[in-house]
Amino acid sequence: MPRIGRVCMDDPGTRGHVDGWTTFLKAGLDCSRPGDPPYSYDKLTSLAYLPAEEMFYGLFTTLENGVAGSAVCAFNMTSVNRTFDGAFKHQSSPNSLWTSVTDNQDHYRCRYQDTQRFTKSAPKYLLMDSSVAPVDSEPVYSLDFQRLTHIAVDVVPTRQSGPVHVLYVAEGDGSIRKISVVPRSSRTTVSNRNTTTTCLLEVIAPFPFNASVKIHSLKLLRATGSLYIATEDEIVRVPVHRCSRYASRSACLAAQDPYCGWDRNLLACSPPPNQNPFVSSWVQEVIDCPTNTEPIDGGWSPWSPWETCRQAGSPDSCQCRHRTCDAPTPARGGAYCVGHQSEVTDCTVHGGWTSWSSWSQCSASCGVAVKSRRRSCTNPAPQHGGRVCVGLDHSEIYCHQLPPCPVAGGWGSWSAWENCSVECGEGIRKRIRLCNNPRPKYGGPNCSGCDEEIEKCSGTNCPRIKKLSDWTAWSHDLEGIEGAQRRYRVECSAQMGPSPKLEVEMTHEERLCTYGSPCIATVPLDRIAPTAIGDWEPWSEWSECDRECGIGQQMRWRVCATTECDGPSSQSRPCNQHPCKGMWSCWSDWSDCSPSCGSGQQQRVRVCLASQLPRLEASDCPGKNVDQRACQGTNCYVPPGEEGWSQWSEWSSCAVADHRVRSRVCTSDRPSLCRGLDLQKQSCQDIPLEDITLLERRTAPPADQRSEGVSISSLVGACVACLFLGILIGALMMHFWTVRQRHREVPASPHYLSVKPNQYVTVPGAEWKITTTAERDKSSKSHHLGLSSTGSLKHSLKRKSSVRDPYTTLPLKDIDTATIKRSNHSSYSHGNHVRADLACDTNFSF
Q: Do 114 and 14 meet the contact criterion of CB atoms below 8 Å apart?
């Protein structure tokens, strides 16, 4: 049962009750409908207190495990105080029954006189014996099969009925019930013991239709005349009255809404002017429950949320919403709601093509041109998930009977440069190009520019011819210097070539001759003093270096001032000894493709030259001096059935045996493409001497590489020596093993079992025709001759015909096998005795 508590605001507490109340009492709130037994509402969900009226309204519901029901009970403070002034309910022990006890209540009425006596009785009394009864001893409003959640109360002054209490109670689905509690008038019969009349005025739906909204709080604010509803997502404001919806005086007065009356000045249903219900022009009758004689026109409920709906006879969808004519429902001849009950929008619309447009103009006035037409997917346009149009939105066709467009000429590639016009010296060379890429047609312009290009070229250096005349006689006493002499000669030189140029240069020599001393030659006159007495003159300055890099030379001179001086008259020293920086020359032309058929290579070279002395080679240029690239010659002729063979290796040398061999390998996954032999043999007697010499030159390594490789003759000799050495060692081991076996008795043991030969190693051999051992050895050697010094197979010399020996042909389908035999005898388990049964003449290297 719900309870109400009371405590003094100045409760001091006592020893043992300092942290608790000493004046606290509680009593039950009784809200039940009369009956036998009475129907009780035991859960208090909401409360509204009216201080001015000293009363409160409580909203009660049944328990969760019972049948749903709700009730509103009104309690005044007189009934509350009467209950707390009554007897206590006391239980002397946990096992005893509750009894009614009357005791002094001064302390609970906030009169603190006998504290010692209270200390003994305080723990005993907490609950009052009787419950607080509601006004009129029953609920003012009840509702079956629903649970109300919140309550708000407003006190409305009226013209003839005094203050009327208007209750707003919230339902579980979010709707609000507006209820009036009207005091009984003098016309009420005395037999009715209730002092108030409760009327349901209307049901307010503040939220959309079928919207399940949970209300968290419900508050009424008289200053704004509004009811505020708090939900999970929003706060909704609802006016407390809707007087304007009543169009006539009779409908306004019959509604019995305490907020509404008829304004004779405005001829409208409205709240009282200036909140004064006693204005003479505002008419309001005695408030009672609404009468049911006036017709009620229907009103639309709020629109439902938009939802997906199906089109009739189509799988496509639309967005629909609905409303109902139940706010209010038409009654007593009232008009039905005007307007649509449902609205449909955003229906699926599939796209449709418009008609084709007219053909456009041709895209060009000559040559190849097209014209087009278009259409659009807008008849109608696809909307709301509709399908787009299927097909092309434009089409094109060629324009016919157009004249060809003029074709402007275009230059072709330049031809190769012609030979230089001179064999030596500086000449010219030229190259041409043709206006044929494309040729001008249909009146198109010719190519612009020159069809011939000329540049300077130089052949080899033309020889330069020089001729010297004889020296003239020495002239004496030049420039007033005694003993100074000079002579002359003429040097004529001409550079040979297409335009020889003659150059004439006069050279001279000077010398100083003194009496009784030899003459000093090549002395500059400006260094000769008129009167030279003494030792050497100072050295001249060093001359400029005759080279900028690569070790040049500087000179200086001095003059002897006397007739005899010791030492040289000139000195030289090296200069600019740093090496010249290398610079690459131009690349040479690409060489011819080698070989001439099939895949090959081309190469070009360049030279690293000194940047300051172009005629000298340098070595510090970055990069390589040789460049190679792959090339493709003409397709080599391949006889039918030999497409899968590799190229023949080089012929082996005739220097070792009297015949030579070569081989090839099948490189195809399809054996049918490899017909013929994989080994050829030719007698050296049938080969011309010049071919043998050429072959030996080709197979012989360069002189600078012979010391690094192994010659074929050395390799063959080593193989033969190893062969005989192996045979000798094998024979000795066989003899030693036979002797030991003779004197050894093998014990009868299951661990000593005979071993059958197992083929662990198969060695490809040949189905030889019966020949002598010497011929087989010779043939075996010839197979080894097919290897070069580096172990790779070389291409054979091309000949018009080859001599094949049928006795050495290797069939591809048959092979000989040799087996390495092992025994589990203990004497062989340590690796000391290994017996190999391999035929040496069936081993080949390819």
A: no
Q: How far apart are the first and last CA of the chain?
A: 112
Neighbouring C-alpha atoms within 13 Å toward the C-beta of 179: 22
758-806 pLDDT, tens digit per residue, is 444 333 433 333 333 344 444 443 333 333 333 333 333 333 333 344 3
Q: What percent of the chain clears pLDDT 90, i.e. is strictly above it?
A: 28
Q: Which residues pair with 25 in a beta bridge?
A: 6
Confidence of residue 185 (pLDDT cuts 50, 70, 90): low
**Closest by Cα among 262, 238, 107 to 176:** 238
Identify the bridge partners of residue 845 per DSSP, sorted by sequence position. Answer: none
Average pLDDT value for residue range 818-829: 40
Strand order in the sheet with 69-76: 43-50, 55-61, 69-76, 141-144
Q: Is 714 exposed, middle or buried (0-12, 13-18, 19+ CB in 10 A)?
A: exposed
* Residue 272 pLDDT exceeds 90: yes
Tens digits of per-residue pLDDT, 810-821?
333 333 333 333
**Cα 535–chain centre separation:** 91
Distance CA 175, CA 227 (A): 13
Question: H or E element: which one contains 545?
Answer: none
Name the residue among 566, 469, 475 with its Cα closest to residue 525. Answer: 475
Burial 88-119 (b: 16+ CB within 10 A, else e): bbbeeeeeeeeeeeeeebebbeeebeeeeebe
Please give the single-letter amino acid code of residue 291: T
Q: Is the Cα torsion angle 233, 237, 240, 242 positive or negative in sign? A: negative
- 629 token code pair: 């690239």
Query: Tokens 């009785």 correspond to what residue?
Result: 121
Contact of 288 with 324, CB cutoff 8 Å: no
Specify the DSSP element, H or E, that contains 777.
helix 773-784
| Residue that wins the pLDDT comparison between 344 and 702 | 344
Query: What is the tally of helices (H) and strands (E) in the chain?
Result: 6, 42
**Long-range contacts from 53-58, C-beta under 8 angstroms, 24+ separation:** 53/155, 53/163, 54/78, 55/135, 57/140, 57/151, 57/153, 57/165, 57/167, 58/2, 58/29, 58/31, 58/151
Give yes or no for a contact between 171 and 178, defined as CB atoms under 8 angstroms apart.
no
Which of 13-22, 409-418, 496-505, 655-664 shows the lowest per-residue confidence on average (mean pLDDT)? 13-22
Q: What are phi and psi of 557, to 5 degrees?
A: -130, 165
Tokens, residue 139: 């609920």
Q: Taking residues 117-136, report their average pLDDT.
A: 77
